[in-house]
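Final report, section 2: Outcomes. Of the targets proposed, Long-chain fatty acid--CoA ligase is the one most frequently requested by collaborating groups, and we therefore present its record in full.
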Amino acid sequence: MNSSSHTLPEIVFKGLENYGEGLFASSKRDGTWHEINVSDFREKIINFALGLYDLGVRSGDKVSIHAENSAEWLICDIAILSIGAADVPIYSTQPGDQIKYILENSDSKVHIVSDDEIFAETKPLIKEIETVKAIITLYGSKHKKLKPFESILERGEKLRKEKPDLFDSLKSEVKSEDLATLIYTSGTTGMPKGVMLTHNNIASNVLASMEKLPFDEKEFYQERVLSYLPLSHVFERMIDYMYIYMGCRIFYTENIEEIRDDLMHVKPFFFATVPRLPEKIQTGVKVKGQEFSGIKKSIYYWAIYLTEEYNPENPPSGIGALKHKIADKFVYQEIRELFGGNLRGMVSGGAALSPEVFKFMNAIGLICVQGYGLTETSPVITVQKPGEMRIGTSGKPLRDVEIKIADDGEILARGPNIMKGYYKNEEKTKEVFTDDGWFKTGDVGKIDEDGFLYITDRKKSMFKLSTGKYVAPQNIENKLQNSGFIDRVIVIGYKRKFCSALIIPDYSNVKKRLKRDHYTPEEPYSEDGKIRELIQREVDKVNKELSPWERIKKFVLLEEPLTVEADELTPTMKVKRNVINEKFSEEIESMYEDEVKANGGD
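The predicted structure is given below as C-alpha cells.
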C-alpha cells in the first residue's frame, strides 16, 4: 500500500484479504482462550457495523468502548470506523468520575462494556449522562437495559439481507481526514483531554512504522504475536492494525500477572511492550543466578555481565564473538525459553528503556528496538531498527515525520501523524502548537549529528534544586530500577538542597538474597534494617555514576507497590508525581527535617 492518504478500514480489510483462512485471534477470558477465525471476524465486523447503524449511529457520532483487550474489542472498533463514526476507548482501570467526564465530554451516543464487573464503575452515574442512548454488553449482563452483543449482530445481519450493499457504501464514504478516535490522555495531572486523531493520522503511522520493523513484513505472516498492552492506548492499537495488515495471529492476554504462562502458551514471534516487563525479566534473570553454585554460577554470571558490553550497532567480532557464542550456548538460550522459545523481537515504548536493559535483551538474541511518541502523535515519532540501534537513543524519525529541538530543549514534531487537536479545547490545543505549526511534545532532548533522537526527560518532571542545579529524575530512576532488588523509584528534590528518593524494593528478590545469609526479614519489610542496608548498597553503586548534585542523599522505603487502582500510576504505568508528593508528604518531609531546622523551622 503506498503512502497516500488512507482510512483504517481500508488497511484492515486489505490485511484480511491476505490472511487466507484459519485462526485470526485468540482472547484469554476467565483463564480460557477463545478463538475466532478470519471469516467470522470479518462477518462480525460487517454485522456489528450495520447493527450500530440500525441503532441510529451515523457518520460523525461517537461510540465509547470500555472493555479489556479481545477480538471483540477490535470488532467493535473497526465496525464503528467503517460507518464513519469515531470511537472513544476507555481504560478498563479508569475510575468512575473520569468515565462519566469522558462520556459527557465526547458526546458518546452508544456505550459498549465488556461485562457487569466493568459496568459497575459506570452504572451509578449512567442516568446522569444524557448523550448515551444505548449500552451494549459484549459478554452478557444481568441488567435488562443492556443490549447483548449478539443482538446487535442479529440486527445487522437482518439489515444486511435487506440492503446487501449498505456496508460497502458506508465504508466507501469514510474519508482519510475524518475523525477516527477520541483518545483521552491518561494524564499525570487533572482530568484527561480528548486527543482527536483522524484516520490518516493513525494510518500514516501504521504504514511508516512497518518500514522500521526489525524483520521483513513477510516474516510476520501467520506468526503468533502477543498483545498485552491496553488497546485503549494508541500504541498497542496502532501495532494491532499493523499485525492485521501483515496477517498475524493475535493472542490477547488477560492478566499481566500471568504473562510468563501466557508466553509459554502462545510462543509468540513478536510483541509490543513498555519497559517495565523487560526490566522485570532482566532483574529476575539476575537474581535467578543466586540459586546456582560452583562453576554453573560462575558461567551464568560471566554470561550476564557480558551483556553489559554488548552494542547492537557494533556486534562483537573475533574473540568477542566466540565468547558470545559460548554464553549463548550455556545461558542465553535458556533465557530465551522463558519467552516461549519462538520470540524473535519486541518493540518498547511508553517510557525510556534503560541502556542496560536494551543491551541485555539484544545480547541474549532478541532484537529489542525502542521507539518514542505520544498519543497526540498517533503515536510513533521515532523508532530504532536494525542498523540504527544506537544505545541511549529512540532512533530516527519515521518517513514524512520531522523533528527539531526548540531553544529551551523541548522536542518539536511535525508530520501526517500529528493530532487535529484536543476535543472542545481550543485553549489547550493552542498551547501545544507553535505559531508555525510544530507540535510541542513536552519532552526535553537532543538530536545528534547522525539524526538520532535522545530523550532527557519530561519537561514537567525536571526540577531545580534550591542550589540552582537542574535534575532530570528519570535518568536516576532508570539506573536505580536496573537493580534486581528495586522495583520502583521516585526521585524528589524540587526546591530542596539535595535529591532524595521514595524506593519500593522488589521484596521477593530481596528475601531470596537475604536467605543466602540465613536471614529472614519480618514485616513491615520497609522498616527492616538488613533490607535497608541492601538497598543502601544499590544506591551507593548508582551514586558513583551520578554528578554530585544528582546523588541520592536520603531515601525512604515504601511497603506496597504503586498501583493504577490507588491513582498512583496512569493506565500506561507512568507515576503520577503530584499524587505521590501529596500521598507520601510525611515520608518526604522526614528526609528534609535537618534542612527545615537549618532554615529556622520547627
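The two ends are 69 Å apart (CA to CA).
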